[in-house]
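tool=predict chain=A
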Amino acid sequence: MRTQDEELSMHKIEDYDNHESKGKRNTIRIVIAIGLIIGAIYAVFKYNNNEVSDYVGTQYNPGIVPTKN
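tool=predict ok
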């Protein structure tokens, strides 16, 4: 049977309650920053390359002409 000292506890984890190392904290900040940068680049490319053609049809089957005569 386990004694009280052998029980797992959150207080025994070295990163619990703001006791993490500066290296780990900086790594998390870098990962979050890289994720935000990649997301921003993706959003810019998606926004700039989102061109929808108003013309519906082909050369042989003209379809809808959006201009009035």
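The first helix runs from residue 22 to 48. The mean pLDDT is 80.
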